[in-house]
Design a protein that fits this description.
By secondary structure, the chain is an alpha+beta fold. The chain has two domains: about 20-330, BirA Bifunctional Protein, domain 2; about 340-430, 3-Layer(aba) Sandwich (Rossmann fold). The protein is built from 15 helices and 17 strands. The chain has helices at about 20-35, 50-55, 60-65, 85-95, 135-150, 170-175, 185-210, 215-225, 230-235, 240-260, 305, 320-330, 355-365, 380-390, 400-405; strands spanning about 40, 50, 70, 75-80, 100-105, 110, 125-130, 160-165, 265, 280-285, 295-300, 315-320, 340-350, 370-375, 390-400, 405-410, 420. Strands 1, 5, 6, 7, 8, 9, 10, 11 and 12 form a nine-stranded mixed β-sheet that branches. Strands 14-13-15-16-17 form a five-stranded mixed β-sheet, sandwiched between helices. Helix 1 runs antiparallel to helix 5 (about 135-150), helix 5 (about 135-150) crosses helix 10 and helix 7 crosses helix 8. The longest helix has 25 residues, at about 185-210. It is elongated, with a radius of gyration of 28 Å. The structure holds histidyl-adenosine monophosphate. Histidyl-adenosine monophosphate (HAM) binds next to strand 7, strand 11, strand 12 and helix 12.
Length: about 450
């Protein structure tokens, strides 16, 4: 036999013991409930895709983080780092003839070879919600409402998180009005994207490195220092393209305000999104204290479907990760109670009652209850202890007298109160629903 070897988990990957999985399932259940409440249908795709799908569509940052290899057939493949190219590929092949707009959601596991740090791992799960085939700003507002409600459904409120919103068309209009030549715009976007973390000096140096003129650098540095909507409106009041580019954001806000979600919105000129395919309104959700990485990011990407060979369809959506969200839920004490729980623990006093105990337990399971019992022969005291450890709500004790009368002694494990009941009456009994967290 080969010598024993121990293996540790790969960095940036997670194990999910039942207590961890309880939180993940709670998050997924809430995501599904909220997405369905807006009429979205769930889809999935393969975790492995042709490498080219990302090289051409996602942008350099993600491509540098791909898990990629040649398969045994010589194909260059990659583990999916995001879901949007898969969605675009799937719809490119089937959207013709489908009623629009298409509302689809998914909860894929994604893989990015990132430097592991708080809130960033090498795998994560992401709720993806997308509307395809609707160009109007109501669709942008609708997906952001889903993102906000997905967090509200987990017990988070306006004191806990904020949605920072911007529009790539507005950024382009501002860059043009500030005198930045078109060829420098993607470089400018990269500087703006990192401005909050880099600080004013490094941002200025980044702009200068693009070869922009001093007045342009000054104007952009001024906007990065105060990118409020009022300041922008005032600074560029003579630029019709900038003023026009603000209108969709105003309408977006008024729709979300009508839904009662206005308190979650904040205009933020530095939100431009790292991914290459966004074309319009973009947004990111952050914890209100600003201590964590983004919980969610998304926006409008009107050209992607066409770029993967489909009909030209406008699209808008977001991805919400489970990693930062889990940290926030733990911080706010909004994690469900993962203690094991079962409805009935069946205890037989001696081996003669075992068959009746097994039959009763099985009947209760068939009626939808969770049932456990000891897998080895034990005294009643030990079985009661095991029932308590298992989080059982009731113990059903079957001894010779109970067996003779086709009954069981039913013990409430919390109060210790016991009563004798006919076995046949048991499935009808009301078992209170398990406590699964602090949220309603
Ligand atoms: P993204 O901004 O790259 O967007 O990712 C969205 C969210 O996924 C982030 O805000 C974060 O919560 C989570 N996330 C991303 N990378 C990691 C990581 N390494 N570890 C943990 N969590 C992570 C997209 O992926 C777009 N495809 C979203 C989209 C859908 N846009 C339109 N539709």
């Amino acid at each position: 036999m080969p010598a024993a070897r121990s293996f540790s988990r790969l960095p940036g990957f997670r194990d999910f013991a039942p207590a961890d999985l309880a939180l993940r399932s709670h998050v997924f259940d809430t995501w599904r409930r909220v997405a369905r409440s807006y009429g979205f249908g769930e889809y999935d795709g393969p975790p492995l895709e042709p490498l080219g799908l990302y090289v051409e569509k996602s942008g350099d940052e993600i491509v540098g983080q791909l898990y990629t290899f040649s398969d045994k057939g010589g194909r260059e493949v990659a583990l999916r780092p995001e879901m949007t190219p898969t969605l675009a590929r799937m719809l490119a092949g089937r959207s013709r003839g489908m009623p629009k707009p298409i509302r689809w959601f998914s909860i894929p596991q994604l893989f990015r070879y990132e430097r592991s740090q708080r809130g960033r791992l090498r795998e994560h799960f992401q709720l993806n919600v997308d509307i395809v085939g609707e160009a109007g700003v109501a669709a942008d507002a609708e997906v952001l409402a889903v993102a906000i409600d997905a967090l509200r459904g987990l017990g988070l409120g306006e004191d806990d998180f904020v949605a920072r919103v911007n529009d790539r068309r507005l950024v382009t209009a501002v860059l043009t009005a500030a005198g930045a030549p078109r060829g420098t715009h993607s470089g400018c976007l990269a500087v703006i994207d990192k401005a909050a973390r880099a600080g004013p000096e490094r941002s200025r140096a980044g702009l200068e490195a693009l070869g922009l003129s001093s007045p342009t650098v000054d104007t952009l540095a001024e906007i990065l220092a105060d990118g409020s909507r009022d300041h922008l409106a005032d600074r560029f009041r003579d630029s019709a393209p900038v003023t026009d580019a603000m209108r969709p954001l105003d309408e977006h806000r008024s729709i979300l305000e009508a839904m009662g979600l206005g308190a979650y919105l904040q205009f933020d000129f530095t939100v431009v999104r790292g991914l290459a395919y966004y074309t319009g309104i973009v947004f990111e959700l952050f914890d209100r204290a600003g201590e964590l990485r983004a919980i969610c990011g998304g926006g409008r990407y009107d050209r992607l479907l066409e770029l993967v060979g489909g009909e030209p369809l406008p699209a808008v959506g977001f991805g919400m990760g489970d990693v930062v969200l889990g940290e926030l839920l733990r911080d706010r004490d909004l994690v469900p109670d993962a203690a094991p729980a079962c409805d009935y623990y069946v205890i037989w006093v001696g081996p003669e009652q075992r068959a009746l105990g097994l039959e009763t337990g099985h009947r209760l399971r068939a009626a939808g209850h969770s049932v456990m019992y000891s897998l080895r022969s034990q005294g009643v005291g030990k079985q009661l202890k095991a029932a308590s450890r298992a989080g059982a709500r009731q113990a059903l004790i079957i001894g010779p007298d109970e067996a003779a009368a086709a009954s069981a002694t039913v013990r409430d494990m919390k109060t210790g109160i016991q009563e004798t009941r006919p076995l046949q009456s048991l499935p009808e009994q009301e078992i209170p629903p398990p406590a699964t967290g602090r949220n309603p």
